[in-house]
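If it is no trouble, can you show me the amino acids of a protein and the tokens describing how it folds?
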Amino acid sequence: MTLALYLSSQGLGNNPELMRPADANSNKALIILNALDAYSNTRISALQYETQSLDALGYVCQELDLRAYFHHEKVNQPLVNSDDAKLTALLTRANLIWVIGGNTFVLAKAMTQARFKAALLQANENRIAHRLPALMYAGYSAGAVVAGIDLQGIQLMDDPSVNPAGYDPTTKALSLSLIDDRIIPHYQSDNSESENAYLAVDYLEQRKLKYKTLSDGEVWLNYSP
């Protein structure tokens, strides 16, 4: 069974009811704020806001800071590190992974340096093996974009050169490739990023690359609740 995906352009989007936990046994949410690592002064208020939003849906939340699981050796090695096992175990116990917006490239670097994709997929396999519902990956803006097949075009919306303290400057910003498409958020929206979203779409059109635009409020999902 594949991951459940809920990808929004901005915030919870227009369909937050589709994210509600089924019951009190499936209400554990992990919030990833690493897209804001270059803007550390906003992290506390962002965590409070996102926690309140998910609390209203019935979730019990905690932050998952991927920096606690960063590798300082080659990140393409097999999962053998104790931190990998800890991250996988943490994700296995969760029901929802909520990934917020910010700089997409910073977020992708954090996920790469923490080997997040491998841990995420393994955690989902663990849940299925124990006859638990699939893990839901949900996010908005950068959190949605990074789920795509790659980050082409997003350099026109976010600065790929940003490298916060503690990040390995040689780490590549790799997407999760959870879907065979590219998400362009904030398209045709009352959002400061909307103009750059048009530029990203034009970039992809010229190269005849697949993409999916999302206006603020719109949601892309791959499951039937």
User: Anything to note?
Assistant: Residues 4-221 form a domain with the Rossmann fold fold (CATH 3.40.50.880). The CA atoms of residues 32 and 132 lie 22 Å apart.
